[in-house]
Amino acid sequence: MNDTASGHKPLGRSGMAARAARDIPEGWYVNLGIGVPTLIANHIPPEREVVLHSENGILGMGPAPEPHKENPWLVNASTQRVSLRTGASFVHHADSFAIVRGGHLDLCVLGGFQVAENGDLANWAQSATEAGRQIGGAMDLAVGAKRVWVTMEHTTKDGRARILRRCTYPLTAAACVSRVYTSLAVLDVTPKGFVVIDIIPGLSFEELQARTEAELHRE
Amino acid sequence: MNDTASGHKPLGRSGMAARAARDIPEGWYVNLGIGVPTLIANHIPPEREVVLHSENGILGMGPAPEPHKENPWLVNASTQRVSLRTGASFVHHADSFAIVRGGHLDLCVLGGFQVAENGDLANWAQSATEAGRQIGGAMDLAVGAKRVWVTMEHTTKDGRARILRRCTYPLTAAACVSRVYTSLAVLDVTPKGFVVIDIIPGLSFEELQARTEAELHRE
Amino acid sequence: MIDKFVRSMAEAMNGIRDGSTVLIAGFGDVGAPNALLDGLIEQGATDLTLVVNSAGRVHKPGDPTTGVARLVELGRVRKVITSFIRATSIAGEAVRDGRMTAEVVPQGTLAERIRAAGAGVPAFFTPTGAGTLIAEGKEAREYNGRPCILELALPGDVALVDAWMADRWGNLVFRDSSRNFNPIMAMAGQLTIVQTHHICDLGQLSANEIVTPGIFVDRVLHVAAGDPQLPR
Amino acid sequence: MIDKFVRSMAEAMNGIRDGSTVLIAGFGDVGAPNALLDGLIEQGATDLTLVVNSAGRVHKPGDPTTGVARLVELGRVRKVITSFIRATSIAGEAVRDGRMTAEVVPQGTLAERIRAAGAGVPAFFTPTGAGTLIAEGKEAREYNGRPCILELALPGDVALVDAWMADRWGNLVFRDSSRNFNPIMAMAGQLTIVQTHHICDLGQLSANEIVTPGIFVDRVLHVAAGDPQLPR
Asked: Dihedrals φ, ψ of D7, to 5°?
């Protein structure tokens, strides 16, 4: 993961998750999407009461269960076995999405393919004609939560930008993202575009801009 | 209540309720409206399992409680204290009306001011400009239940017809009634209009027609 | 630590503004947040729109006026949205005399509009009310051969809720038929305030039995409200 | 005496017709009516439209094909309505090869459309999907400054449901996160068929704990289905 040219070390999946977890305060109701967002749960200290929501009707999800305490009837939105926090509750799927769509979540964190400077998000398909379509609950979450954060690699594996002036992939939702946690930086989506609020050590603003299609602004 | 001119005895409130109760088979889910319909419950034998629904979120209502078994937290749609049958359940108000509006009730029985030969029902106001408006759940029930029966006096106290070609009062719902139990007869609403399926003893078809504005048909 | 319990009625009512739309749960006296209504009367917010299943019971002369009727009597209510209002009630008289307006809504449409607000559905079609006075001014459309009308979500700035038991996360259960409008109004309130008859430790309510999850609840006040009363 | 228990799979499946729309509950394997799906495969109805949260898991060569994938493999499925279908799944391949069509729907819209069918709401507006491929061909309208699209109710001729415990009235409770689509699909099925892990006497489920009242249930089959499996 070392970017030897500039001497900085991009955050890995766990590093991005940990960085995002720092910014989630006690008392928030939060949905963590599939992938890196799911890892965020591991970085929220147990004593900080953050109530995790899962699309399949759980409020108050806990961490992965200890091996001898697995409950096959209790899975998260990725169908991984999970545990419950004290205070948890179950609802059915329509009520679960009433929570999402009714604006009751303080935050959802989603994975992303692309984010545009107007907050547009693309995270479910790379073209309009893909045979598989894996929308899941992303469109509902992107539209419904009070805040939408995205965690993703700052660029694609072959170095193309994901932080864009306009998304080129099919949208998940328009103008929904408020913040992006990438492997290189934390960016706020503002009326003037992307504002850089954090860069990993060893990387300059200019070096970050060079890896970004959209124009970046200083805080 | 004796109609001395023709020697017949109109059914009273309890008589109408008993007559309607006869026609409700085991296994039906039924909502009984305020007034005479509520009395129907007293005429369904306890061993016949009819599941009574109440708008405020009860399925499986039982009869009025014995005096020492009253539960102040358990009332019917008229806010009278009731009991529960074994097997009863509670739902919230939106789910209760999902039951009504989603077509899940086999039957609702409503009181009526007027019923027209096309099945139109008027049962909530006598003019469009009344100060009070007491709709309650009647419009939902009239539209949503699989069958709508009406129990009412055959004529008004001053002898005006209630079984009409067209309703003159504001409608509760259009073309919703399938059967009417009056103090004098049982009428089915059919594509050709009202069909008489039962008359109280001592009253002829012609005498019934004389008390009815709409044209009556023999079975 | 999440703690939604408030220690006083003043704290429960804090910040309710003039002009608010207030959702008031209950069916008759069962599940009605009467203590919170007393608190709202005391708190002073005015120019209110009240959403309540029944806005006007008959008022017997000599009985103290309480709840919705009292707010109406005090001139604090601009409008009621309700399924039931009697001409002879205090609310009915206020409407007749032009001191207040009333929007009368079929009870199922009322419940569905409230639930829609909580669920993020801004508008929906329903056959209820089509072809009646209720349809006046509303968009009409046929589905499956049945005439339908368009109804709008009905959110509240404030929801007043009565629970049987609550924990510090605001998880709620209701007793018997007191459930009625409480869960859906809790969903639809921007600020949902709960009076609860009993409190319990977190975890005492099982995950499967909780009816209203705390996510819908902002404040919980423990009150000794007693049993619901029958109408006189 | 009301008795919704059926004694055989044949009785449970009786009358399901070719061309039916079948709602299939479950999220992954949790709350999935797998025994009833086996029964449907055996029963033979074809030209089906399946409504199921996830239509296509990856299929490992050598594993037996079951459930939705098996129905697809047998050519019995005309269309799936789903929130999730993988290109590399048996269902995904059937779509690619033109043997089946797929309508892919946001998961919350899917749930809300099913609930709407059960609640008698023929259509509703939602902001989910506005401005995306999902909005193509749909009526659009703004509410509160947000673009919305019109979505239609999604009823089933048949709903296949998995319950934890049931009584002879068809009252149901669910275990933990197996609740998911089961209660709303029970509401939306014209013929709702339940497999239950346990049965109990009427009255053993308390009125306050019942999640799905029997009014939404037509048939209940007691099966020894075992615990849900993790995906391989």
From this structure: -100, -5
